[in-house]
Design a protein that fits this description.
It is a peripheral membrane protein. This protein is mostly helical and 729 residues long. 65% of the residues lie in helices and 0% in strands. It is built from 22 helices and no strands.
Length: 729
C-alpha cells in the first residue's frame, strides 16, 4: 500500500497526532525554545540587511556626485572640440577664400578645382552661423569667386573657340582642361553653356557648307553630310578627346546635335522642294540615313538623348573610332536600293533621330508601289497571253502559276522596306495597296483566264433532254483547258494560304494600335470564290461530256428492244469519258487533294440529282402529254422504283469512293447517305470491281473496272436486290 499522510486521513485526530509527535512535555518545551532562537536569528538578519541598504544608498549618492563632475567635464570637452574645429574651419575658409581669389586672377584652374570643392564643403559647416557678419561675408566672397570663375572660364572658351566663322582660332590646352574640372564644381549652367558653345562652334562649318542654297544640301548628296560628321568626330577625338572630362560624353553630344540640325534642315529643304522628290531618291536618302543611325548605335549608348544628367558609361570606350569604318568604300550600286534590309534593332536609341523627317513624304513611296504593282499585274497578264495556258502532259499542267510567287515576293520586299521607314499610317496605306492588287490578280490573272462556258453550261438535264433539238452540240473543254483550270485552282489555293500569312506578318510589323485596321478577309474570300468556280467548271465539263450519251439514249428506239443486255453503248461512252478525264484532273490536282475530293463529290451529287429527276419523269411517263392525269399502275411504279433505287445506290458508292480519295476523310461520313451496314456491303462490292494492281505497284486508286465473272455478277446482283428491297420497305 502506498504511503498516506496522516493529515489526509478521514479519521484524523489532531490531539492524538500531537501526542504522537510530542509524547512528553519536555520535548514540547524544547520545541518552543527552538522557535524563540529562530525568531532572534531572523531579527538579527533583518538588521544586517538594513545596514547594507543604508550603505548602498550612501554609495549611490557619492557616485552621483562624482559623475556630475565628469558630465560637466565631458560637456566642456565637447564644446571645446567644437570650438577648435570651427576655428580651424574658419581659418581654412578664410585662407581658402583668399587663395581662391588669387588663383582665379592667375587662372590657376588646376589648383582652383581642388580648392574650390574644399571651400564649398567647409562652407556647408557654417550654414547655421550665417547670422554672424564675418561668416556671411566669407560666404558672399565665395559666391563672388564662383561667379567670377564662371564668367572667366566662359570668356576663355569664347576666346579660344569663337562662335563666328568656321575656322578655329585656337586648340586644346591644359588651361581649358583644368577649367572644365572647375566647371564641374560650379553651377551646372556653366557646364551646359560650355558644351553648347563648343558644339555650336564645332558645327558652324556644317551649317555653312550644307545650307539650303548649296548643291550638296540636296538628298542625292546626303552621303556627304554623314561623311563630314564622321571626319569631324575623328578630328575631335584626336584633338579634344582629353580636354573634356569623359563623363561629359562630348563625342556623343556632338553627334546628337548634328542629327537634330540635319533633321530640321532636311525637313525644311524637302518641304520647299517636295515636287523634286522621287521615290528612288527618297529611298536612297532613307537608306543612307538609317545606316548612319545604326552606326551611331554601335558607337554610343544614347544616354545623352535626354536632358537629364549624363551617366558614365559602364564599359570603357574603345580606342578606335568606328566612324573610320567604310570611310574609303565606294558608293553602293543602285540595284542595292531595292534590296530588303534587315529590320532595325529594337534597342537602337538613335532610330528615327534623323530619318523621322522623311515620314511626311512617304506618300511618294506608297504611290510608287501602287504604280509598280499595277505594271507588275499588267506584265503578268501579257506574259500569260504570250506563253499561253499550261500544256497538258507536262510538269506545267496543274502547277501554281509562277506569277503568283513573284507577286508575294514583291509584297514581302515592300512590307519589310516600309516597316523600316514607318510602322504607322504608311503601313496601313501599303496594306490598302496590297488589297487592291490581290483582288486585281484574282480577277485578271485567275478568274479572267478561266475557260468560258456556253449558255447551257450546266450539262444535259432530264428536262432539257426532252426538248433537245437535233444537231445541237455543247462544247467541251480541251485537255489544255482542263490543265489551265487545275492550275488556276492550285494558284488560288496558294494565294489563299499566303494571303493569310501576309495578314499575320503585316500585323507584326505595324504599331499595335493599328493592328485592327489590317484585315484581308475580303481578299481571302475572293480566292475562295475562284476555287469554287474552278471546281464547278470541272464538274460542268464532266457533266456536259455525258450529254451525247444521254442524247443517244433519248433517241434510242426502245419499242424495238426486246431483251435487256449487259451494258448500253451510251453507258460505255460515259464511262470511257470519265476514265479519260478524271485521271487528268486528279494528276493536275495532286498538290490539292482536298479540292479533287470536292470535285468528285460535286460531280457525283449532280448525277444523283439527275437520277432523281429521271426517276420522277419515269414515274409520270404513262401520263406525259395527256390532259387527264392518271396514277401509274402499281406494277409499273414498282419496276421504276426498283430499278432507279439500284442506280441511286450505285452512284452513292461513287460518293463513298470520293471520300476515300484523301486519307483524312472518314469513310463512314454521314454525307454518304447510307447506313453503316449498307456502307460496308457497298464498299465490299466496290472493292470487288476494282482491278488487282500489278505486283509492286503503289499507284493510287483508279476508276478502271474489271470484267466480272458470271458467278460474281449473280452474287452481287442478289446482294443489291436485298438492299433495294430493304430500302423500299
Amino acid at each position: 500500500a502506498s504511503f498516506q499522510d496522516p493529515l489526509d486521513r478521514a479519521d484524523f485526530n489532531a490531539v492524538e497526532y500531537i501526542n504522537t509527535l510530542f509524547p512528553t512535555e519536555q520535548i514540547f518545551c524544547l520545541l518552543f525554545q527552538a522557535l524563540e532562537e529562530a525568531q532572534k536569528a531572523i531579527q538579527q538578519l533583518f538588521g544586517k540587511i538594513k545596514d547594507i541598504k543604508d550603505k548602498a544608498e550612501r554609495s549611490e549618492q557619492m557616485v552621483k556626485e562624482i559623475t556630475r563632475d565628469i558630465k560637466q567635464l565631458d560637456h566642456a570637452k565637447r564644446h571645446l572640440t567644437t570650438s577648435i574645429t570651427t576655428l580651424n574651419h574658419l581659418h581654412m575658409l578664410a585662407g581658402g577664400v583668399d587663395s581662391l581669389e588669387a588663383m582665379t586672377r592667375k587662372r590657376q584652374y588646376g589648383e582652383v578645382a581642388n580648392l574650390l570643392q574644399g571651400v564649398v564643403n567647409v562652407l556647408e559647416h557654417f550654414q547655421k552661423y550665417m547670422g554672424i557678419p564675418q561668416i556671411r561675408q566669407l560666404s558672399e566672397r565665395v559666391k563672388a569667386a564662383q561667379s567670377e570663375l564662371g564668367t572667366q572660364i566662359l570668356a576663355d572658351f569664347e576666346e579660344t573657340f569663337p562662335a563666328q566663322g568656321s575656322k578655329k582660332s585656337g586648340g586644346p590646352s591644359n588651361v581649358l582642361r583644368d577649367a572644365c574640372l572647375v566647371a564641374n564644381v560650379l553651377d551646372p549652367r556653366i557646364k551646359q553653356e560650355i558644351i553648347k558653345k563648343f558644339i555650336r562652334q564645332h558645327l558652324s562649318e556644317y551649317m555653312v557648307l550644307f545650307q539650303e542654297n548649296q548643291d550638296v544640301a540636296w538628298l542625292d548628296k546626303i552621303d556627304r553630310r554623314y561623311a563630314w560628321i564622321k571626319r569631324q568626330l575623328v578630328d575631335y577625338e584626336e584633338k579634344y578627346g582629353r580636354m573634356f572630362p569623359e563623363e561629359w560624353c562630348m563625342t556623343e553630344r556632338i553627334a546628337v546635335e548634328f542629327c537634330h540640325i540635319t533633321r530640321t534642315e532636311l525637313a525644311k529643304l524637302m518641304r520647299n522642294r517636295a515636287r523634286e522628290i522621287e521615290v528612288k531618291l527618297l529611298l536612297f536618302a532613307i537608306q543612307r540615313t538609317t545606316n548612319f543611325e545604326g552606326l551611331l548605335a554601335k558607337r554610343f549608348s544614347g544616354y545623352t538623348l535626354n536632358d537629364g544628367p549624363a551617366k558614365k558609361p559602364e564599359m570603357p570606350l574603345e580606342p578606335t573610332n568606328p566612324f573610320l569604318e567604310d570611310e574609303d568604300s565606294g558608293p553602293e550600286k543602285d540595284e542595292d536600293l531595292d534590296r530588303p534590309k534587315k529590320p532595325k534593332a529594337p534597342d537602337n536609341p538613335f532610330h528615327g533621330i534623323v530619318s523621322k523627317c522623311f515620314e511626311p513624304h512617304l506618300y511618294v513611296y506608297i504611290e510608287s508601289q501602287d504604280k509598280n504593282l499595277g505594271e507588275l499585274i499588267d506584265r503578268f497578264v501579257a506574259d500569260f497571253r504570250a506563253q499561253g495556258p499550261p500544256k497538258s502532259g507536262t510538269d506545267e499542267g496543274g502547277a501554281v502559276l509562277p506569277s503568283c510567287a513573284d507577286l508575294f515576293v514583291y509584297y514581302k520586299k515592300c512590307m519589310v522596306q516600309c516597316s523600316q521607314l514607318s510602322t504607322g499610317e504608311p503601313m496601313i496605306a501599303l496594306t490598302t495597296i496590297f488589297q487592291k492588287y490581290l483582288r486585281e490578280y484574282a480577277w485578271k490573272i485567275l478568274s479572267g483566264n478561266l475557260p468560258k462556258t456556253s449558255t447551257n453550261s450546266g450539262g444535259l438535264t432530264i428536262s432539257s433532254l426532252l426538248k433537245e433539238k437535233e444537231g445541237s452540240e455543247v462544247a467541251k473543254f480541251t485537255m489544255e483547258e482542263l490543265c489551265l483550270i487545275c492550275s488556276i485552282l492550285s494558284t488560288a489555293e496558294y494565294c489563299l494560304a499566303t494571303t493569310q500569312q501576309l495578314e499575320e506578318k503585316l500585323k507584326e510589323k505595324v504599331d499595335k494600335t493599328l493592328m485592327e485596321r489590317i484585315n484581308l478577309t475580303g481578299e481571302m474570300d475572293t480566292f475562295s470564290t475562284v476555287i469554287s468556280n474552278s471546281i464547278q467548271l470541272l464538274v460542268q465539263d464532266l457533266d456536259v461530256a455525258c450529254d451525247p450519251a444521254l442524247t443517244a439514249m433519248s433517241k434510242m428506239p426502245w419499242q424495238s428492244v426486246e431483251h435487256v443486255g449487259d451494258q448500253s453503248p451510251y453507258v460505255t461512252s460515259v464511262i470511257m469519258h470519265i476514265k479519260q478525264n478524271v485521271p487528268i484532273i486528279r494528276d493536275n490536282l495532286a498538290s490539292t487533294r482536298k479540292y479533287f475530293t470536292q470535285f468528285c463529290i460535286k460531280f457525283t451529287k449532280s448525277l444523283l440529282l439527275d437520277t432523281h429527276s429521271l426517276k420522277t419523269v419515269l414515274l409520270d411517263l404513262p401520263s406525259i402529254g395527256s390532259q387527264v392525269v392518271r396514277k401509274a399502275p402499281a406494277s409499273y411504279t414498282k419496276i421504276v422504283v426498283k430499278g432507279m433505287t439500284r442506280a441511286e445506290m450505285i452512284l452513292k458508292v461513287g460518293t463513298l469512293r470520293s471520300f476515300t480519295a484523301i486519307k483524312h476523310l472518314r469513310i463512314g461520313s454521314p454525307d454518304s447517305g447510307l447506313k453503316r451496314s449498307e456502307q460496308s456491303t457497298m464498299l465490299e462490292l466496290f472493292r470487288q470491281r476494282l482491278p488487282n494492281p500489278p505486283s509492286g505497284s503503289d499507284s493510287g486508286p483508279s476508276l478502271t473496272f474489271s470484267a466480272p465473272t458470271p458467278e460474281q455478277e449473280s452474287s452481287r446482283i442478289r446482294k443489291l436486290e436485298k438492299l433495294i428491297k430493304k430500302r423500299i420497305q
